[in-house]
Structure formats: structure tokens, C-alpha cells
Design goal:
This protein is mainly beta and 119 residues long. It contains no helices and eleven strands.
Length: 119
Amino acid sequence: QVQLVESGGGLVQPGGSLRLSCAASGSIFNIYVMGWYRQAPGKQRELVAGITKSGSTNYADSVKGRFTISRDNAKNTVYLQMNSLKPEDTAVYYCNAVQGVLDDEYDHWGQGTQVTVSS
């Protein structure tokens, strides 16, 4: 099993910054994509940003230019630097890891961390 532990959420004013961290442990072989999703009240979970083991990244249009995802493979940790935060960024943020096992893929999820952007 893979365990994902997130940290770094909290309350921040509009225009502020937060940095989320997600540390992976357990059977962490062949995790080739890690990413962050978020879910706001009454909305579906959506992809925020993803990063492959080689460092290729992708972002939701709504966060491009404001959020940066990075990965430390030696520490099995992924980060999400969030700048210029807006009230609409308020959500529970979930860490995700996609693991390849033989011919299958498995999604692993963290417990979520709350990010609230409010004055």
C-alpha cells in the first residue's frame, strides 16, 4: 500500500501564498505521476496540477501562472506552491499518486488538506 500525507493547508488572505507538501511512503515503487486535485463544496473534484517522474508538468487553466508543482524523487515528496491565491481557490486539496503494477494502474489518495482564501 501507498500512504500519502499532506501538509501545509490553512487560511490565507486573497493575494497570499501557501505551500502544500505530500510525502509518499509504503510500497512506493513505480509511482510515475503525482499530482494535486481539489474539491470545493458542491463541486466535483478537479485536477489542479500533475508532475511525472521525469518532471513534465500540467496545470489547470485556472491556476496557470500562479501555482507551481514540483517533485523531490529522493524524498518521495511532491509540492504545490500556490501564489496570488483567490477566494475561488478555496477547497480541500488532495494529493494523488498513480502507481503502475504489472499491466494495471492504481490511484492512491491522501486524506486532504483544507485551503481557505478569505479576508
